[in-house]
Structures are given as structure tokens and as C-alpha cells.
TrEMBL record:
InterPro entries: Endonuclease-I (IPR007346), His-Me_finger_sf (IPR044925), YhcR_N (IPR045939)
Alphabetized GO MF terms: endonuclease activity
Keyword Disulfide bond: no
Coiled coil spans: none
Entry keyword annotation includes Signal: no
Domain Endonuclease YhcR N-terminal, first and last residues per copy: 55-156
Keywords: Endonuclease, Hydrolase, Nuclease
Region (Disordered): 286-311
Protein name (Swiss-Prot/TrEMBL): Endonuclease I
Source domain of life: Bacteria
Length: 407
């Protein structure tokens, strides 16, 4: 039997079958909109919204409170304390306020949209919703280090029909890729992480360490210059055969540091192309085994790159790439194959044995993922690894929305 909204929502969202988001319960006839030619009711009337709280009240509520909130969509949160009003980079999050012209993030409730609702309510797919008045049902919880609403199970426009869902992310993928992820569809949280782990760990070809040179010349080839590769941190196009250990050559950068995973050059995590990239030898050495985070002093050789004693901040164009590589590793390697269980955490600067299996900073990587979505180079690289080298994919390149569904 389809799910029924809890009693706390019955005074607000009397539209389980009304929004097109949730099916009507068996034996329950959907109400019809006045003047319609039949079919489900699509508009919220004043009675249906009477029980919703204002955003100001929601902001004052403690975490864990079940809420129905009425407010205006005023933008997309992209970082702690930062909400944009366009252009919108994803359908992952919303900001809601009592005033449609609100600009102060402190007066906004930040909403995490679950995967089933993004194609209908996300601002990247529907920028015309900016300023619209909505009612949302969810649970008060911190999001982007501020007051938020999570576990959202219903959204509706006040006085208007819901927008037409945008084509699903899966619909843009080739049929073979859609089939690859079939067992993960409809899942979220730990359940999704487990399903993805099984998918990306099955029938995988493990390369030898010396095979990585040839593989990287393929996966990271400069599309505009045959015979050259693109270095991860500098972005420079360099001769593909200029690999080695000298300062002006490129070598094999492990985005999840070998020492932080305890895998060295072992076939498996030590040779997994989904996190091994060409990098300038001296820049690679300077990155060492640092965590990822914002800030520090300019690195010097790699433009728009910063480091301090605890962390490394790569150039803007690959921040999302780095995030998705790290998150892939956390899902792919869970300690069941003789290697460490890899986990992404908020802590940076761990040392020695305490660092083994851990890499940070999670909140920064999640923000980088949202700010820098997958581009054509990253998608082509994912295809090459799948089709030619390892036989598995990075799911967060194919389905970026799954990052928020897990973390």
C-alpha cells in the first residue's frame, strides 16, 4: 500500500494523490479542482495551508521537529552563509523565506531536496519557481551549517499547479549505463551506498601499477592535442610520454593518498583509475597526503591552488572532480577486501595511525561537488575507465544527485 502522510501533515497537505508526487491511497478518491474536466485536484487552497508554520517559526524550532512550512523560494544555498538567486547549478537544495525578496541567509530555511522531488522542484530545472510560495513537509535539521529542513516528503505550490517534472537524470544516460545502475534506483542513504558499493565492486579489472602509465595517457588525454595529457592540479597539457619522477615530468597522483588508505601501489585501491590522475611531479609532492579544504597560501606552481599545514585547495575547475573521486573511494572500499574502510569526515590534519582510512573535509567536498558539476572531460574519462580499463564507473559523475542522497 502506498505511504500515507503522518497526522502532523493532514491539516496542511491533503494531497497525497494530489501533487503527482505520491499516489492516492487505495479506496480514496482524489478531490477534483473546480472547473476541471476531471482528474486530480492540483491547487492548494487556504484551508489546506492553514496549519503550516511561517519560516520564522521554523527557524526557531529545535532540530528533529516535524514541520509543515509555508514560505517563498528565494534561492539556492551553495555554501554556508551563501545563497544565490541564479544561475542555479543543481536541483539539490532550496532556500525558503517569509519575504520573497529576502536576501539575508540568516532569515532563510535551507531545504535539502530528496531525489524523487528534484526534477519537479529544483531551481536548476525550474528557475521560474524563484519567488513562488510553497508549502513543504519535512524535519527540522541543520543543513549547510544553518537552520534547515531535511527528510522532505511533500512540496506544493500555493494557488498553482506543480511544474512539469524535468527529464530524469537517468533519462540522459545511455541504456547500458542505466542498466548498470538498475539495482540502485529508488534508494537513498545507507541503502543507496550499499547498492552502489556492490555495483562498482562487481566484475572489476584490477590494473597493475605499471599499467597506469598507458591507462592515464588514454583516460586523461588532451582532446585538443593528441599525444598529450592534462595534469590534474595545474591544468597544463604536457607530453604523454614525459612521465617519470623528474621535477618537470608528470607522475601518478593518488587523490586519496596512498598513506591515508594503507594501500600503497597494490592492485585495487592503489591502482584504481577513478582516483589516480596525472600530476606535475613537484606539485604532487607538495600536495603530499593533505586533506582537502579551503584556504591557505598560494601553492606557487599550480595556479588558483592553495595549501596550508593541513589541507589542499585545488583550482576551481577540478574541485568537483576531486570531490567525486574521494566520495567514490569511500563507497568503493569498505574494508571487505583486505584494505582499509575508507571514510570521509569533517576532521582535517589527522596524523599517523589516526589518519588511516580517513580523509576530509566532508562539508567542503560536498560544496565543491555542487559548485563544479561534471563536465565533458570528466564524463568522457568515466566512460573510458568503464569501457576500456576497469569495467566500473564513478556513480557520482553519472548521477550527481546521489551525493546528497547519501551524505
Amino acid at each position: 500500500m502506498p505511504p500515507v502522510l503522518a497526522p502532523r501533515r493532514l491539516g496542511v497537505l491533503l494531497l497525497v494523490g494530489v501533487l503527482g508526487l505520491l499516489p492516492a491511497c487505495a479506496g480514496q478518491e482524489p478531490a477534483e479542482e473546480a472547473g476541471s474536466a476531471g482528474g486530480a485536484r492540483t491547487l492548494l487552497d487556504p484551508v489546506a495551508t492553514a496549519g503550516a508554520t511561517a519560516v520564522a517559526q521554523a527557524l526557531a524550532s529545535p532540530d528533529g521537529t516535524a514541520l509543515s512550512v509555508r514560505g517563498h523560494l528565494v534561492g539556492q544555498p551553495v555554501a554556508p552563509g551563501e545563497v544565490v538567486r541564479g544561475p542555479f547549478s543543481s536541483d539539490l537544495a532550496l532556500a525558503v523565506a517569509d519575504d520573497p525578496g529576502e536576501r539575508d541567509p540568516a532569515r532563510m530555511l535551507l531545504v535539502q531536496l530528496p531525489a524523487p522531488l528534484r526534477s519537479t522542484w529544483g531551481l536548476a530545472s525550474h528557475p521560474e519557481l524563484l519567488g513562488a510560495e510553497v508549502v513543504l513537509g519535512g524535519e527540522r535539521a541543520s543543513y549547510f551549517s544553518a537552520a534547515g529542513l531535511k527528510q522532505v516528503d511533500a512540496v506544493a505550490l500555493v494557488g498553482a499547479a506543480p511544474p512539469t517534472p524535468a527529464p530524469s537524470a537517468a533519462g540522459d544516460l545511455p541504456a547500458v549505463v542505466q542498466e548498470y545502475y538498475a539495482d540502485a534506483e529508488g534508494r537513498s542513504g545507507d541503502d543507496l551506498a550499499r547498492a552502489l558499493h556492490e555495483i562498482v565492486s562487481t566484475d572489476v579489472e584490477r590494473l597493475r601499477y605499471d599499467e597506469l602509465w598507458e591507462a592515464l595517457r588514454d583516460t586523461d588525454a588532451d582532446p585538443a592535442a593528441p599525444g598529450r595529457v592534462i595534469e590534474l592540479y595545474t591544468g597544463d597539457s604536457v607530453p604523454g610520454d614525459a612521465n617519470g619522477g623528474d621535477p618537470e615530468e608528470w607522475n601518478r597522483e593518488h587523490v586519496w593518498p596512498q598513506s591515508r588508505g594503507g594501500f600503497g601501489t597494490a592492485a585495487g585501491p592503489g591502482t584504481d583509475l577513478h582516483h589516480v590522475r596525472p600530476a606535475d611531479v613537484s606539485v604532487n609532492a607538495d600536495r603530499s597526503s593533505l586533506d582537502f579544504d579551503d584556504g591557505g597560501s598560494p601553492q606557487g606552481e599550480a595556479a588558483d591552488t592553495y595549501r596550508d599545514a593541513d589541507s589542499w585547495e585545488p583550482r576551481e575547475a577540478v574541485k568537483g572532480d576531486v570531490a567525486r573521486m574521494v566520495l567514490y573511494m569511500a563507497v568503493r572500499y569498505e574494508g571487505g577486501d583486505g584494505f582499509a574502510d575508507l571514510e570521509v569526515s569533517e576532521q582535517v590534519g589527522r596524523r599517523d595511525l589516526d589518519a588511516l582510512g580517513h580523509l576530509g573535509r566532508l562539508s567542503t567536498l560536498l560544496r565543491w561537488h555542487e559548485q563544479d558539476p561534471p563536465d565533458a572531460f570528466e564524463r568522457a574519462r568515466n566512460d573510458a575507465i568503464f569501457e576500456t580499463w576497469q569495467g566500473n564507473r564513478n556513480p557520482f559523475v553519472d548521477r550527481p544527485e546521489w551525493v546528497a542522497a547519501i551524505w
